[in-house]
Amino acid sequence: MVDIARSVGDYLHDVFVAQFDGWMILGFVAQFMFTMRFVVQWVASERAQRSVIPFAFWTFSLGGGTLLLIYAIYRRDPVFIAGQALSTFIYIRNLQFALRERRAKRAVT
What we know:
It is a single chain. It is built from 4 helices and no strands. It is mainly alpha-helical. It has one domain.
C-alpha cells in the first residue's frame, strides 16, 4: 500500500510540479475560460428558467478553445488539435450568427 501511495505521489509531483512552466499556465487559463462558458450558460438559463445560450458562451468558447488549440499544438497532441481546430471554426460561425442577430435587433429598435 505504501508503494502505491508513493507511486501516486510521484506521478502527481511529475504532472503538476516537475512539468510546471508557462505553457501549463496557458493551459490552465484556457481550461478556465472554457469552463466559464458553461457557468455563464447555466446562470443565464437559471435566470430565464429555460435553456439559454448567451453571447458570452460563444465568446468564452472561442477564447478558451483557441488557447487550448495553441496549447495542443505546442504539446503536439493530434487528437486534441483536431478537436479544437474544428470547434474553433464552429465558435467563430456561432459568434457571426449572434452578432448578426444583435445588429438586427438594434436596427429594429
